[in-house]
């Protein structure tokens, strides 16, 4: 199968289909129905697999890549760093999600995971408070900063279940699912 060549097996229950820098060309090209391409390929390929979940990692920008992802999803998990620009731009993403919901006549469940959280920093506490005032019911967990995450991603390894980030992510995902 065509789709098989993109699957990277981590273990029996986890596969990754990595993004690629060539996708930046996708934004520049004039393609008809650009925002529906992912839906087309998912419909064509995913029925051949028994995946419980498909996680789509998109760049943090309002591009046709994110609209493709929003078109095929019913849940959005936003890993948001507790930094001023990330928190202040979050309402822009929420507006776009609501627009896709209206156009596609569907509901998209939004969850926030505070990402790369650094405790005992007063500046971050102020930003976190700003986020929680407006979006507290969306916040499902917090993952502290860890270099271990980058190691297992870059080396396509199975995450170590003893790492604190693993338990924090697991807890956040359990509250989402």
Question: What is the structure about, briefly put?
Answer:
This is Putative plasmid partition protein. The chain contains 7 helices and 5 strands, in the order E-E-H-H-H-E-H-E-H-E-H-H. By secondary structure, it is of the alpha/beta class.
Which key features would you list for this structure?
single chain; about 180 residues; alpha/beta; Rossmann fold; 7 helices; 5 strands; about 45% helix; AAA_dom; DNA_Partitioning_ATPase; Putative plasmid partition protein; plasmid
Describe it for me?
InterPro entries: AAA_dom, DNA_Partitioning_ATPase, P-loop_NTPase. Pfam families: AAA_31. Keywords: Plasmid. This is Putative plasmid partition protein. It is a single chain. The chain is an alpha/beta fold. The protein folds into two domains: 1-70, no CATH class; 74-177, 3-Layer(aba) Sandwich (Rossmann fold). It has seven helices and five strands. It has a three-stranded parallel β-sheet with strand order 3-4-5, sandwiched between helices. A two-stranded antiparallel ribbon has the order 1-2. The model has no long low-confidence stretch (mean pLDDT 81).
């Amino acid at each position: 199968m065509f789709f098989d060549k993109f699957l990277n097996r981590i273990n029996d229950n986890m596969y990754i289909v990595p993004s690629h820098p060539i996708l930046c060309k996708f934004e520049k090209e004039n393609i008809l129905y650009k925002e529906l391409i992912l839906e087309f390929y998912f419909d064509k390929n995913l029925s051949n697999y028994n995946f419980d979940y498909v996680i789509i990692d998109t760049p943090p920008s309002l591009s046709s890549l994110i609209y493709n992802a929003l078109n095929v999803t019913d849940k959005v998990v936003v890993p948001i760093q507790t930094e001023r620009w990330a928190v202040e731009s979050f309402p822009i993403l929420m507006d776009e999600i609501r627009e896709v919901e209206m156009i596609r006549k569907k509901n998209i469940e939004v969850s926030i995971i505070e990402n790369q959280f650094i405790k005992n920093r007063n500046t971050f506490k102020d930003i976190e408070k700003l986020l929680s005032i407006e979006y507290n019911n969306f916040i499902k967990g917090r993952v502290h900063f860890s270099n271990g995450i980058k190691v297992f991603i870059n080396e396509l390894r199975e995450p170590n279940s003893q790492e604190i980030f693993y338990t924090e992510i697991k807890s956040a995902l359990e509250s989402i699912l």
